[in-house]
Amino acid sequence: MGKLQAGVIPVTAFQQNCTILFDEDTREGVVVDPGGDVDVIVQTVAENGITLKEIWLTHGHLDHAGGAKELKERLSLSIIGPHEDDLPLLERIETQAQKYGISGLQNVLPDRWLKDGDVVSFGDHRFEVYHCPGHAPGHVIYYNRAQGFAHVGDVLFNGSVGRTDLPGGNHEQLLASIRDKVLPLGDEVGFICGHGPGGRFGEERRTNPYLQGLGPIGAAPQAPVGVDQKTD
Predict the structure, then answer these.
(1) pLDDT tens for residues 62-89?
(2) How many CB atoms are closer than 10 A to CB 57?
(3) At 213, is the pLDDT very low, low, confident or very high (cuts 50, 70, 90)?
(4) Domain total for the chain?
């Protein structure tokens, strides 16, 4: 099994980071948050010789989940995540899309809900799941302990944090998720987020203005049973 690789495809008018996680050798992988522009996603995956195994969702906002149903049907993929607290958001994607004047996005239900402590994987690449509400009630992040990498969706950005003025948002809850679930994973962990460039948790802890004064950072969460904890 080869090294974990990641590629980003900005989709929809929101320029959401649809992310392809794949194995460098086998070219098998998953797509995280196919929010729309499914033709572009399918073409990019084919041009790079990648075989998708599943769709993973971080949360239920339209720009992250709006293309998931179409992609599932076109490529016969299962949809994994998010946490079931995002069911109301997934059921309102089409209504929200109409408000923004966006066509083609569809309501969707996952084949498997996720909860805190779950593990998802493709090949030998295993990701721990952390439920991190605040931006959305059912938001989850995916953490690969072996390679020190996380996909954090819209929980944390380079220099900012997720907005909390949308239905189900809660700013204090978001900051608690970052303090108690995200930052304890370690300063050296690199991340991809839902919009814009990624970074490293340590840099955000030191410089992100929204994270100053969060209080003491707790111990790093332990890996669920069966997760490979090697660090090379």
Answers:
(1) 999 999 999 999 999 999 999 999 999 9
(2) 28
(3) confident
(4) 1
